[in-house]
């Protein structure tokens, strides 16, 4: 069974207490964007066999949305983090790289640019300053 720890209330919740919200870190495209970008935003989703970043809601707990990095095959969880994060925290990227040396992030496909902190570039804290929980 999949167990994810809610980064807001700290509860280790079983899958039945959570609601999936699909792929995380989507770039939202609206009016004024190209048809291809809008189509990608509306319909295209990654469904990898391996490391994946997802949105989850702690439905039967605090009710907040958060993000999780996990392996879709083994259900190994690399970490959870606030939904307002533009990119996964460094420690989660490090945990993935430690366990999956061949893993290659697909940030360019998701965000249209390179994520700081992925690779050799130092990154600012991806968690917005208004998130004071720890
Ligand atoms: Zn919670």
Broad CATH class: Alpha Beta
Strand order of the largest sheet: 3-4-5-6
Q: What's the shape?
A: globular
Rg calc:
15 Å
Q: Tally the beta strands.
A: 6
- Structural class comes to alpha+beta
Unreliable stretches covering 5 or more consecutive residues: 110-114, 116-134
Report the helical percentage: 10-25%
Tell me about this structure.
- The chain is of the alpha+beta class and 134 residues long.
- It has a single domain (3-111), classed as Folate-binding fold (2-Layer Sandwich), CATH 3.30.2270.
- It is 18% helix and 23% strand.
- It is built from three helices and six strands, in the order E-E-E-H-E-E-E-H-H.
- The protein has helices at 35-43, 90-99, 107-111, and strands spanning 3-5, 12-14, 19-23, 51-57, 65-71, 77-82.
- It has a four-stranded antiparallel beta sheet with strand order 3-4-5-6, covered by helices on one side.
- Strand 1 (3-5) and strand 2 form a beta hairpin.
- The radius of gyration is 15 Å and the shape is globular.
- The structure holds zinc ion (ZN).
Summarize the structure.
The chain is an alpha+beta fold. The chain is built from three helices and six strands. It has one domain: Folate-binding fold (2-Layer Sandwich).
What are the SSEs and their pairings?
Layout: E1 3-5, E2 12-14, E3 19-23, H1 35-43, E4 51-57, E5 65-71, E6 77-82, H2 90-99, H3 107-111
Antiparallel strand pairs: 1-2, 3-4, 4-5, 5-6
The structure holds zinc ion.
